[in-house]
């Protein structure tokens, strides 16, 4: 074969094979894109439609495309969607997505993440429960449809930013399967399997798939950073007038959540903080992983950082469709989700401080401070120390949802009407402490004492085995939602080429909850000792311990809102179309907003839903070799409540209005007789605050954490029909850490590359991420303002992961 004779230098291979006409007329086996002109979408539409006929901004990814991109997380896959600004630095889960410049505290607050048209969980932005905590991309996914804005608010709740719908595989008459084994430079071992086929030909079909994975983490934790897996199965019976389907999913996975680390900013450059590897270092390390502290109410509270984010998810659901005759049909989807999640993470409480500064801030005057290692007792003199929040959260969540939909088809279109009912509950318990460590990766726990006092003196020690604040915060809260929504959607074909769409949704939703009021106490009279000899009066670590009481606050909040959308799509010819859409939607207050409002005796602002208006127009061109979408948009948002949680457990409690205008670009080309493929997506926008009520001087500032420009470009070369290579480049523009626009997060670009070879039914692949080891900051730390020290600016921020390479073997059968 020609491939064996070629140099690994790709340009030589391209030049030689460019003239291979016999090959050039065939589509490569490893091509990443099926013709978009034939693709049909269902998300945000009442009935399946060809993309060119849908008056929505929607991106699609088939299983084959997802396989070739081999995203390291669900968030990494969503980076390929224009209009979605995605922060991927949290690790495999716990990442943030912002749709069309809509600001939030993070998570998936203004979009809904779905599996097969129903939510992964009804609210994707509960505290410490980002939607991607409960979903994993594996080989059982058939395709992804990502809708921005548009009709999202008609077909789902709290989703004015869009819908992200992962559609799972179903079996067919032909038995098919795939098995994949993957390893990496960071200790990864992962196995994916998916099987599907017919139990009764043309009638009864099955599909079962899942994965199991363990790895050490790209950032060096000293323990297994990710370990666990998922299994998903469905059974579908097809009859003359419809079908019935049942399915089950089990997810039991444990992931380390990576949080801000110290960096040095010098103008537009970001450099490593001394002693801290920016690409591979983390405070989430084995040496500080265990917490075991007495409680003011008796007993001990124990936690293991190695458990990380650990959701146990069980999902059971059913789907039923029936043709009622006379052009009427009914579709019913139902699902029950139960989640038990233990969440443990290290959240820096501010930035590094010099040894003297931290001691002084803790009541030790002058130089009478002494640090020692908890592990050995050895006295040390660190240049910088770091206080870290050891945050433990337990959440029990469940969600029962049913979507009943009737459709009627007529000559010129169809009308759909439905009733959506969802009940969900979130019961959570928080227990937070602060610990003291060296300001380094692979941190060591520190004790701090005042040498001007004796070991028996009150306040001699500022720590208890490295803990500076023992259980300084406890929360026991419960939030429930009962959603009762009616919706209708009309598609009308004025002519063969001109179609109109209108939709409306009425939401009659009830929210209620309670939380336990707390008091403070200490261990001075508990009879316990810090070291077998000295009582707790000798340390300040227990001086402000939180104690749950028996006094509860009960609250409720009702939502009566109407969302609507109108749109038109004009198909100029089979390959060209233009459309326009106006939509109005809303987002109910989130879980932290309820707690913040009802726990505040004198709230600054009334509690309101967030309302949005969006206008978008678009041009779409789809052919077998070239796709392009250009979508200008304009959006406004009112009554946004910022709810970042600070290191002391309080909420940010800032309110704002915003407006944004921009353009989304998406393109794909297959050039030079299928040798070169090029995919591109990008967003140019200008999101600004309008009416930032807490500080009018910030009027017109750029929305925090939002880049004005971000894009991905990925060329691929089919060197032979079997051999393919690609390069990808992600660019994330300059942003501001906060509303004041004082702290700048510099722009950065991340390069990935990979190669695959198809040998019959076996595919060999190598995929590299951040191959040039770029230090790229996706977000600053809302809990930590920048620090001036020794002529440098120290910031706390979350950089992307360092360079990593994965290798995989996939068998299709």
Automatic annotation (TrEMBL):
It is a multi-pass membrane protein. Keywords: Cell outer membrane, Ion transport, Iron, Iron transport, Membrane, Receptor, Signal, TonB box, Transmembrane, Transmembrane beta strand, Transport. PROSITE patterns: TONB_DEPENDENT_REC_3 (PS52016). The keyword Membrane applies. It comes from the Bacteria. Gene3D superfamilies: TonB-dependent receptor, beta-barrel domain (2.40.170.20), TonB-dependent receptor, plug domain (2.170.130.10). Residues 1-24 form the signal peptide. Residues 279-767 form the TonB-dependent receptor-like beta-barrel domain. GO terms for molecular function: siderophore uptake transmembrane transporter activity. It is found in: Cell outer membrane. Residues 51-162 form the TonB-dependent receptor plug domain. The keyword Nucleus does not apply. InterPro entries: Beta-barrel_TonB, Beta-barrel_TonB_sf, Plug_dom, Plug_dom_sf, TonB-dep_rcpt-like. GO terms for cellular component: cell outer membrane. PANTHER family: CATECHOLATE SIDEROPHORE RECEPTOR FIU, FERRICHROME IRON RECEPTOR-RELATED. Belongs to the TonB-dependent receptor family. This is Outer membrane receptor proteins, mostly Fe transport. It comes from Chryseobacterium taichungense.
